Amino acid sequence: MKPGSPHTKTKAQLEADVLVLTREVEALRRRLDSGPDDSRRLMTETLHSLQVHQEELRTQNEELRQAHDSIAKISDRYRTLFEYSPVGYFIIDENFTVVDANIAAMSLLGRTKSRISSKPFLLFVDKGERHLLDDHFRAVRTGVRATTEVSLISDHRPPLPVILESVHLGNEDGGGWRCLTTATDISDRKHAEIALRESETRFRAIFEQSPLAMRIVDSNSKPRMSNRAWVKLWGDSPVGSGLSELLPDGLAGQSLEIPAVHVDSENGGGERWLHGYVYPIHGDETSVPEVVLVHEDITERKRMEMALAERSELLRRQYENLRALSEIAALPTPYVGMRLTDALGLARRHLGLFMGMISRVEGTRFTVEHHSAAMEEGATPDGTIFDLPNTYCALAIDHDDVIAISHMAQSPFADHPCYRTHGLETYIGVPIRVRGKVYGTVSFSSPRPIDRNFDDGDREFVRLLGRWVSAVLEEESVRRDLAQSNAELEQFAYVASHDLRQPLRQVSSYVSLLARRYADKLDADAREFIAFAHDGAVRMDRLIVDLLEFSRIGRGDKPMEPVALTDIMAEALAVLRHAITEANGRVDLQSSLPTLKGNASDLVRLFQNLIGNALKYRLPERNPIVSISAESGPMSHVITIRDNGIGIEGIYHGTIFGVFKRLHTPDKFEGTGIGLAICKKVIDQHNGRIWVESVPGKGSAFHVELPSGL
């Protein structure tokens, strides 16, 4: 029979059966003595029964030994699990004293088992939390599984947060009430909770204090959280109607940027510009339970951008105005009428208008002097006369400044006679003044309105153009007056010089005749006086001749034409041949000289004077040497006449080219002081320049720069 079957007897029962059988054996012996046959039979039966019971007892003992071994193994296994469990285990008795503790429990407390066993458990709990143990173990006594969070005190580190879980072990073994208490280290979780709280605090601070308007909504667009900036911007509106219509129908799992949108704030803030963002808050792999709406108020930035764009457009217009004015100022046409007409064309195209005109006003008479039109058909030709009150220009003259009307029909001047008669929708004009008096106007007009309003740049452009036209007309007026005055002065100088020579020749002739006839009858003083009078008359005649020559410079009708400087120099040296020989001088001429555009006779006079001066102003102790060279550049030629003469002090370099600017008395060097003035006038006539470099006692170098264009 197997242990545990219904017919299995315990060891005590078997021992009782053996005792009964032993007694029966004794009784049988006694019977045997009285009756051998029956006794033997009974003896045999009893012995057999005893053997059976002994075998059952042996089998029972073997089964008990095996059960004991199994229990020992199970006990060792559970002991191992208890000792080496990663969770701290405490066995606590009815007095809440620690009966046993595993290795993990010892590690939690930082104590050995001997310092833990037989100690009240509350000694290992933080003082401020010991009151929690009463409720904890009271629940365990009632058979309830109790769970409590406390801090355990360790010898070598701060209090350690743990979760205590206790279960009743029962008292069937007779050892009294006990419970098993587990202590699970939750310090990592506590740190995570602290970090989460800190993160939550930071998030709240950032969320609430952010200047960006933020709101968290669920998948149904129901608000969950809104910061102060959102409430300030939108009030209590559900989403913020300005950008709500731009959100997608379904909340996708990707971020969304909403470009700048112009909206009207519902919270009394007026119109605003907003830049929006939508950020998903992911749930599981596919769901987006919440999204973050961010609205950035970029109103001020947008206003600055628009102001900057307007400013940039204004600067661009001003740049275009300056460019157009520069092109107008650089117009090369020499004829003033063509120059003004071309200027009107450039300005008209720049403003995008049909016609431009320059008018002259005399009383109520308005005369078109210059015009430019997109098409000649419909243009007002030069010389057309209008009644001033019937023109828009009367408004500009009355206003004495720019008048600009981009759509006449919508302006206060819709009933103006000019609009009723000619239907000009667009007009911009300004008065022009010549020599301080109103000359007329420069204006631009079109039969159609333009697609923009005239701005300050347009007004300034027309204002500057009017000043430029005024300057051109005034310059032309002054030029005409100056040309007439110069012509009269040159004519006067020519006539005066020509007429003065006759009485001078007469004086010189009679003084010479007086000296010849009466020289032997006059004393030395008289003869000296006569010589002075004769020399003065000769010098006066030479001065008049030089003045005549000076007045003739530029008066000839011969046009500028290409001339070879080699030929010019040859002709000048031919005239000076006698002076070169008399001075025992030398002229070194560069073999190759350029060709330029000029007046040949004036250029001969120029170099004749310069070379003649180099020969005249020489030092007595050395023979004069004059070298002539030329250098050509991309825009001009520079011709240099260098000598080894007396030189010129630096303070006189800027004055020697004036009329009658002599540096020496006639007794030292003869001359009238007009030679270099003639050179300067020739150079001016050829749009060149002349200057000198000199060292007193060593010589001078006169440089002549003439344009290279042919």
TrEMBL record:
GO-annotated molecular function: phosphorelay sensor kinase activity
Return the PROSITE patterns for the record. HIS_KIN (PS50109), PAC (PS50113), PAS (PS50112)
Domain PAS span(s) in chain numbering: 74-123
Q: Which Pfam families match?
A: GAF (PF01590), HATPase_c (PF02518), HisKA (PF00512), PAS_8 (PF13188), PAS_9 (PF13426)
Q: Which reaction does it catalyse?
A: ATP + protein L-histidine = ADP + protein N-phospho-L-histidine
The Histidine kinase domain sits at: 495-710
Enzyme Commission number(s)? 2.7.13.3
Ranges where the PAC domain occurs: 254-310
> NCBIfam families per the record?
sensory_box (TIGR00229)
The protein's name:
histidine kinase
Q: Which organism is it from?
A: Paramagnetospirillum kuznetsovii
